[in-house]
Amino acid sequence: MTIHKEGYTTIALSILFIFVINAFIDYKYYDLTWLRWFIYIFSALLFIIVLQFFRNPSRSFSSDENLVICPADGKVVVIEETEESEYFKDKRLQVSIFMSPVNVHINRNPISGVVKFFKYHPGKYLAAWNPKSSTENERTTTVVEHKNGTPVLFRQIAGALARRIVWYVKEGDQVVQAEQFGFIKFGSRVDVFLPVGTKVNVALNDVVKGGITTLATLS
After folding, report:
1. Are 109 and 72 in contact (CB under 8 A)?
2. Average pLDDT of 62-68?
3. Do 25 and 35 contact (CB within 8 A), yes or no?
4. pLDDT of 125 higher than 70
5. Is 188 known to be catalytic?
6. Where are the domains positioned within the chain?
7. 21 three-class SS
């Protein structure tokens, strides 16, 4: 397992914070053994939590041009027909994955194709499971057109804890299925919008893995 590049700065700041608070406690309260041990344990737990959040585990990724691969680790929280008002402006099949703080937070392309649309939206930080988060939270919208002409829209959505969305794509890019297209820090959600009638291969509350789990089969 390696550490994702998005974690380098956060991990460095965490180490600095841990060093400063431990040095202060050791100097100011050297006679309070219980307090020093509390801070030592707290520091170790904090470092482990930050480290695991930015982990980039080694995986064998799925690849099939007829499949839509899950773009993120997490749990399936929405499977429903809904009106997609930003790009398609018609009914689409929405599948949403909630990413808790303990999940791997790398986002991966669900299909290969050409990026036909990309837009970043500043916004609120509602809880990621709130239905309004799809339209009111900070988010990005990406549309990739499959070689058979089918467009698939996927949306990174910031949550109550997430304060930074990172993306690596732009309009006109040729992207490859399961390769990284972005990263969201500290818990969030990814929505995928498919043509109505697409066969979905997951169920509500399924635990899924980005780049591995088959989300749907394209017609």
Report:
1. no
2. 88
3. yes
4. no
5. yes
6. 2-56, 67-217
7. helix
Q: pTM for this structure?
A: 0.86
DSSP summary character for residue 107: E
Question: For the CA atoms of the chain, what is the radius of gyration?
Answer: 20
The label of the residue with tokens 């009914």 reads 91
What is the DSSP annotation of 26-85? HHHSTT-HHHHHHHHHHHHHHHHHHHHHTEE--------TTEEE-SSSEEEEEEEEEEET
List the structure tokens of 137.
């939270």
Q: What is the mean pLDDT of residues 14-37?
A: 90
One of 96, 112, 134, 188 is an active-site residue; which one?
188
Per-residue pLDDT at 203 exceeds 90: yes
Q: Which helix (H) or strand (E) covers residue 153, if one does?
A: strand 151-158
Q: Which class is 67-217 in CATH?
A: mainly beta
Cite the beta strand spans of 85-150 per DSSP E.
Answer: 90-99, 106-108, 113-121, 139-145
Q: Which residues of 42-69 are buried (b: 16+ CB within 10 A; e: fewer)?
A: ebeeeeeebeebbebeeeeebeeeebbb
* Distant-in-sequence, close-in-space partners of 192: CB < 8 Å, separation ≥ 6: 68, 71, 94, 95, 96, 97, 110, 152, 153, 154, 155, 215, 216
Instruction: Decide if 91 contacts 125 (C-beta within 8 A).
Output: no
pLDDT value at position 31?
86
